[in-house]
Amino acid sequence: MTRQRIRSTALHDTRALRVLPSCLLAALLVAPVAPALAQASIVNPGAPGKDSRKLSADEAVKIAASRYSVADVRFMQDMIPHHHQALEMAALVAKRTNSPTLVDAAGRIEASQRDEIGFMQQWLAARGETAPDPQAHAAMHASHQMAGMASPAQMAALAKAESSDFDRMFLQLMIRHHAGALKMVEDLLKQRGSASDPTLLEFVNGVSNDQAAEIERMTALLATVGSDPRTGLAPGFRDSATAIANLRLVASLPKPPGFFDPENPAGLPLEPADGKKKDADALAKQQQEQAFKRYKGESTGSARSGLLSFANTDMAFSGDVLVVGNYHGFNAYRLGADGVPALVSSVVCPGGQGDVSIVGNLLLMSVEETRGRLDCGLQGVLEDVSKERFRGLRVFDISDLARPKQVAAVQTCRGSHTHSVVSSDDKRIVVYNSGTSSIRKQAELDRCIDELPGDQRTALFRIDVIEIPVADPSKARIVDSPAVFADDKTGALAGLWRGGDHGDMTQDTTRTDHCHDITTFPDRKIAAGACSGNGILFDITDPMKPRRIDAVIDPGFAYWHSATFNNDGTKVIFTDEWGGGTRPRCRASDPLNYGADAIYDIVDGKLVFRSYFKIPTPQTVVENCVAHNGSVVPIPGRDVFLQAWYQGGLSVIDFTDSANPVEIAYFDRGPINTETLVTGGFWSAYYY
Predict the structure, then answer these.
(1) How is 131-166 classified by DSSP, letter by letter?
(2) What does the alpha-carbon distance between residue 192 and residue 231 come to, in Å, rounded to a whole number?
(3) What b/e sequence results for 167-197 when a residue is b if at least 16 CB atoms lie within 10 Å of its CB, and e otherwise?
(4) Where is 654: in which H helix or E strand?
(5) CA dihedral 333, 335, 336, 338 (to 10 degrees)
(6) pLDDT in tens, 443-470
(7) CA-to-CA dists, residue 240 to 4, 231, 275, angstroms
(8) Fewer beta carbons within 10 angstroms: which end of the chain, N or C?
């Protein structure tokens, strides 16, 4: 009868059909449990082919309510001996230094790390997990290779050091130790399902913020230790303190009018006033969070970062002419007999980044940004597709340096980040173009095809070969876009580094789908390319058809940025632009093979790694610093390189012995600002 009523009701009112089963379900849930149900087993299946195991109701509930993962447990177990080593290091301070500031720092470390060890032990015990004995020799021996931990030899050397030697070593080791803890937190949070326990999440966030703030304090303290004149330079925009060795400063020129914002010449971030006051605890927490963001190179609040609209970039020389590229155009100078440049003209033609070369009376300039216009207009381009947009290689006639004239504009699919003159004679100029930006829409430039599965026509994984007729530069054009990264055997376009890290404690390296910079050595018919994920050696016997003959990777390189040959073309210096040039990457906590120069010998047509070089003086967290552009100094019988480090200044490096490079001269200035990172410093450096 009941079944019949349900059917009858359903024919006339579907709502009754929906409600009635719900009532039946409720009745089942509250009804007394039948004896058969009470005796039903609870089973936990094993791995495929393995037996299941029975669980009690209490065990089943415990598993279902689990709020931590295996990764969480491993993190806590590893962090205990990691913290304990910091306690051992801090315990050495009082008897080995006369620095009250260092004693205070060690006291803070001792208090915080001891408390956190206690918390981690309690957290593990409450969950029935093993808490390691931090003092056990076996634990320390097994774990000293964890992120940032000092080796037994380093700990022994620290224990023997005294006075300023101890101060320096302690700070360097402790900064790296704290940075290792931040890396451990970062690795934990990358794992799906980790740190879902609110207590654990609060703890790891506290570790990140506290240790990042301590890194800032120790980095500032390290800058006061030692005899290098570059440490602790006073800040300023145009009036900072400077340090110089084995060089002479001839002139320092400000940007010309029209190439800086007169209301904000230093390009400081614009901080909106929120009018809100914070209590002491909230302010301290905010400061710690900001320290962690600065450590990662992120914005520290609502400040609007200064744009690169007026940033100077590269330089080009010819005779007594100097041209300085800029995101806003370029400035042309005449060099006096004393080497001091005199401004002749300023050319406003926005589009970035303004990489420049001079061949005869022609100036070539790279343009990559989507705001660039064919007519050099200041209004930019707002439409997604526009015939007014320009991204590619501009050509100017500079025979009248006071009135340069644009004579050609070669449109490319990914713009022009940099370009390299491969060959030139009285008939033509051959240029390799490197575009690193997004592919423009096909509706704007028909040959531009994005990355589609199976489509070999994509504009990725290529360089452009541009031909410029000397007699009529307006006919400049792309003659080929060879797929120089293709797999030699399969023909797959993505034949080199596919992106990602190289294993534990290595860099996350960019995928190789473009070259950032190519340098040529025409007499030897070779070129070297810094190509995002690889360093590459090319055969340019036929400059119209470059051929890859070797490619190398480096687990410490994030982004292969530039390449420079030595005087006889038997060595190459590659640079790593870790952090994109806008982040502090020369801190005491940063590895010396990250953001550095890598020196290779060329042996039988192959690139053979010899050594790294990185600026030896740690920079602060408010100074963007990494290896950027440089040039070789032509000294017979020696290999000398001039390297720009943004706010790290300039280094002159002797790499005659490629396995043992030595800094022989330098120039540096204090940070632009001590409160926030303002992007600046030396973009490039050239001998002329």
Answers:
(1) PP-TT-HHHHHHHTTSTTPPPHHHHHHHHH--HHHH
(2) 42
(3) bebbbbbbbbbbbbbbebbeebeeeeebbeb
(4) strand 650-654
(5) 130
(6) 999 999 998 887 889 999 999 999 999 9
(7) 93, 13, 31
(8) N
pTM of the entire predicted model: 0.77
- Rounded-to-integer distance, Cα 492 and Cα 240, Å: 52
Q: How far apart are CA 564 and CA 630, in angstroms?
A: 8
Query: Which whole-number Å values give the CA distances from 511 to 268, 420, 502, in the listed order?
Result: 33, 22, 12
Tokens standing for 637? Answer: 């019988």
CATH topology of domain 70-225: Ferritin (1.20.1260)
pLDDT for residue 40: 82
Question: In one letter, which amino acid is 127?
Answer: R
623: its two tokens: 């100074």
Angle (CA) 421-426-430 rounded to 5° is 25
Question: What does 34-92 look like in DSSP terms, one character per residue?
Answer: PHHHHT--EEE--STTSPPEEE-HHHHHHHHT----HHHHHHHHHHHHHHHHHHHHHHT
CA-closest candidate to residue 354, choices 366, 336, 341, 370: 366
Q: Specify whether the CB–CB gap between 662 and 614 falls below 8 A.
A: no
Residue 296 banded pLDDT, cuts 50, 70, 90: low
CA atoms within 13 A on the CB side of 373: 14
SS3 content of the chain, % helix, strand, coil (to 5): 25, 25, 50
Cα angle: 81, vertex 83, 87; to 5 degrees: 105
> Tell me, what DSSP letter sits at residue 605?
T
Strand order from edge to edge, sheet including 606-613 = 560-565, 571-576, 597-603, 606-613
Encoded tokens for 598: 């890598």
Report yes or no: 74 and 139 within 8 Å, Cβ to Cβ: no
Indicate the SS3 state at residue 236. coil
Structure tokens belonging to residue 132: 């390691």
What CATH number is given for 239-255+482-687 in this structure? 2.40.128.630
Report the Cα 183 to chain-centroid distance in Å. Answer: 15
Q: What is the DSSP letter of 504?
A: T
Count Cα neighbours of 266 within 13 Å in the Cβ-side half-sphere.
16
Per-residue model confidence (pLDDT) at position 23: 37
Euclidean distance between CA atoms 586 and 609, whole angstroms: 22
Region of residue 619 (left: phi > 0; alpha: psi -120 to 50; beta: else) = beta
Encoded tokens for 411: 């449109």
Q: Where are the domains of the chain?
A: 70-225, 239-255+482-687, 309-423+430-460
Q: Which of 556, 503, 501, 505 is nearest to 148 (CA)?
A: 505
Q: Per residue in 515-572, pLDDT tens?
A: 999 999 999 999 999 999 999 999 999 999 999 999 999 999 999 999 999 999 999 9
347 within 8 A of 331, measured Cβ to Cβ:
yes
In whole angstroms, give the CA distance from residue 467 to residue 631: 26
Q: From residue 191, how far is each of 70, 195, 206 by CA, in Å?
A: 10, 9, 19
Residue 680: phi and psi, rounded to 5, are: -175, -160
* Residue 385 vs residue 60, higher pLDDT: 385
pLDDT digits (tens, 9 = 90+) for 105-141: 999 999 999 999 999 999 999 999 999 988 764 444 4
> Is the pLDDT confidence value at 346 over 80?
yes
pLDDT top residue among 4 and 455: 455
Find all residues with CB under 8 Å of 258, minimum gap 6, and list them: 328, 346, 348
Mean residue pLDDT across the chain? 87
